[in-house]
Design goal:
Layout lengths: L1 H10 L10 H13 L6 E7 L8 E2 L3 H11 L3 E6 L6 H4 L12 H10 L4 E3 L6 H9 L5 E2 L3 H5 L3 H6 L17 H5 L28 E5 L3 H12 L3 E6 L8 H4 L9 H10 L5 E5 L5 H7 L3 E4 L21 H6 L8
Parallel strand pairs: 1-2, 1-3, 3-4, 4-5, 6-7, 6-9, 7-8
Helix pairs in contact: 1-2, 3-5, 10-12
GO molecular function: FMN binding; iron-sulfur cluster binding; metal ion binding; oxidoreductase activity
EC number: 1.-.-.-
Pfam families: Oxidored_FMN, Pyr_redox_2
């Protein structure tokens, strides 16, 4: 303790109320001296009564931010503290935390300093990012999972091509789950992520005509990639709406964010190379009449009823019917 007190006097900073802050201040000062011409962006981890563990307390954050600025930090990146190993706490899945949930904290820090402040946390769309910037709660925003879903997020946002962005749905199934299991980072929405050298979508040497049966996520993704490669696509979907089972998956509480993926894929179907035949079953006669070069089956699945005793009782219903809204349930 005495050694730390002497250190505080050496670096000539005032009001250091917690001795554990000394290391950070010493480190910043040493880095500033070693690389005077480089930008120092400090990861400013904050803990609130509701969120995070470890890190600087929310009430102390503005004062400590001023100390860091005085010590030589050029920028502050305000994020939720997490020293627990629980990644779902700082990288929350869909429906768990509100959008931009740390912007209020970054706003308080920004008011205390004159250096640029960035924030992160469930900032999904360009509109969300712009709202935070316009409110003065941050000078910059950080996008993490969104760049895994679409590496061109920033470029498309700058060009105002918002509908072309493959937005993250916060499922955490390719990114956070893989990190926790020490596996290769990926994204369930973006098959190219992590495989840019081997899965690059290049123009086909010989454009062909493809018939795709099924307008769910798999069928639409196949159509999107085929059209991007230069092929002509005819897509059959027996329902009058695209989306397949994802339309059902979006219905339960806190799952509506998955709809962003169906909206993106549906937008991708609006191109000249793709002909949609909705509300129409694909029969052998119809397919043969089109004379396609290849046929892709993406018909998905259907609900299966096990032949068990009591399955036909009036108190038993299909979960898919509940999600569709064709069956109403009450009580427990």
């Amino acid at each position: 303790m005495q050694h730390k007190n002497r250190t505080i006097e050496q670096i000539n900073l005032e009001a250091v109320w917690k001795t554990e802050l000394v290391f950070a201040l010493l480190l910043v000062k040493a880095l500033r001296k070693a690389v005077p011409d480089m930008i120092l962006d400090y990861k400013f981890s904050v803990v609130t009564p509701e969120r995070g563990k470890g890190g600087i307390d929310e009430a102390d954050a503005p004062v400590f931010a001023q100390m860091l600025e005085k010590a030589g930090v050029d920028m502050l990146h305000v994020a939720q503290a997490n020293h627990t190993g629980n990644m779902a706490d700082t990288i929350p899945p869909m429906g768990v935390q509100p959008y931009g949930f740390f912007a209020e904290i970054s706003g308080k820090v920004k008011e205390a300093v004159s250096i640029p402040v960035s924030t992160v946390g469930r900032i999904i769309t360009p509109e969300m990012a712009e709202e935070i910037l316009a409110s003065g709660k941050a000078d910059m925003v950080g996008i993490g999972r969104g760049l895994l879903a679409d590496a061109d997020w920033a470029k498309k946002a700058a060009n105002h091509d918002f509908c072309d962005i493959r937005l993250c749905i916060s499922c955490n199934k390719g990114c956070t789950d893989k990190i926790q299991h020490r596996e290769f980072l990926s994204c369930v929405l973006n098959a190219e992520n992590g495989y840019e050298g081997t899965r690059k979508i290049l123009p086909a040497e010989t454009p062909k005509h493809l018939v795709i049966i099924g307008g769910g996520a798999a069928g639409m993704e196949a159509a999107r990639v085929a059209a991007q490669k230069g092929h002509r696509v005819t897509l059959f979907e027996q329902n009058t709406k695209l989306g397949g089972q994802l339309e059902l998956a979006c219905v339960p509480p806190r799952k509506e964010e998955m709809r962003r993926f169906t909206e993106y894929l549906s937008h991708c179907m609006k191109q000249d190379a793709i002909t949609l035949r909705l509300g129409e079953k694909a029969t052998p006669e119809k397919i043969l009449a089109l004379n396609p070069d290849h046929v892709i089956l993406a018909v998905g699945a259907h609900s299966f009823h096990f032949p068990i005793k009591g399955i036909d009782q009036p108190c038993v219903c299909d979960a898919w019917d509940i999600l569709r809204g064709t069956t109403q349930v009450y009580g427990k």
